[in-house]
Specification:
Layout: E1 21-41, H1 44-54, E2 62-67, E3 87-88, E4 94-109, E5 112-132, E6 138-154, E7 161-172, E8 178-179, E9 187-207, E10 211-212, E11 250-259, E12 268-276, E13 286-293, E14 301-308, E15 314-318, E16 322-333, E17 338-348, E18 351-359, E19 365-368, E20 372-373, E21 376-383
Length: 395
Amino acid sequence: MGLNHKKSIPKATNSLQEECIRVQKVYDWVTDTFSVTKQVTFNPEQLRRIEEALQDPARRPLRITCQTPVTPPAFPLSDMESTSSRHFAECEDFLCEQVGEKRDVTVAVNGNFVDAQLVELLFTSEIKIAVVDRRGKVVTHLSTDASVLEPFVLCFPDGTDLFCKITKILCRIPSGTVLLNSPAPTSFNITVTFCVDIQIEAEVKLEVLAKFCSPRNNDLTADVEMEQQCPDVEFPAQCPDIFPRPNCDCSVTGEASGNTGRNATVEGRLTVLADICPNCSLTDSSLRFSFTDADGDENDFTFTAESFDQDTLNCEACHGNGVKLTVSGVGTTNGGDELDFNFAAVNNNFGTQFQLQLINNKGVIKFESGIVSADEGSLEVEDCITFGDLKVNRP
């Protein structure tokens, strides 16, 4: 007699179509650069060869060169191979290695406290040093290594794998690369820079447009008995507050100047240099203001935004076929005062207009520009295409 071991598995409530694909989901993605300075010393035999070459006018001047290993390009990503939880992207000349175990930490992201993981990664590379004469012939050579140990706060939940990739290794000798006369220096410094790409991934089943799909019910029967119960399929916990960060609905870039408007706290001239949401992401955004007091330099200041609040970013259509961008955050003046800011910008058929408010920690407005109509330069405020703009045929 056949047994029906049908098991109910929850269906995805946001299914778009009945297609399921197996992919590597990116839980976090970080790129960065790290530099280390190291002293390199010639041994007596190497110094002897250098001194002999310097005594020959036909070989002078000599040059010190450094050569780094050839690293894989940033793309394709499929070159990365995970072998264990500790060793990644290992080769003969360079290495990225996780040191110790990951630790759970709590960090502040956009004003909220979220759970994340802290790991330490060691980047190591062999560097080849050569002294060559004016014809390029090698006088002497040696090898040394450079290492950097750096902590990373990542979305690295259990069930995911860490992929560490060194995409470029740069070597620079700050000074003393040319040797003209004796005596030769016994040592010199090199600066080694690592360009790294860190990704946290897990193999998941996804529907089109990155929606999770579920396995089918076990609704087929056979004349055998199931001796044990299998566990439910569970994907690793998500970290939406850490990665991926939400896209911007619009962006603003450019430089513009104009006189302060009505209701300004101080009359004068305000200049703004903005690059908010480059590539439609708040990452690498910048905002800087310079104010000149109309009655003298008593109230002159510069203000630089240090961070932007993603939740305050707003884009809306306005009259004159334009888009208005508003955003808030925290920054500092050239005097060292930390202030909250509110910024708005619009560029339409009537030209460029912008507004700045600076607020202290007691909620008091320290500076209000009023609406500034730019008479020099301009700001470009443009729409960004987001997932919400896509038209999807839903069943």
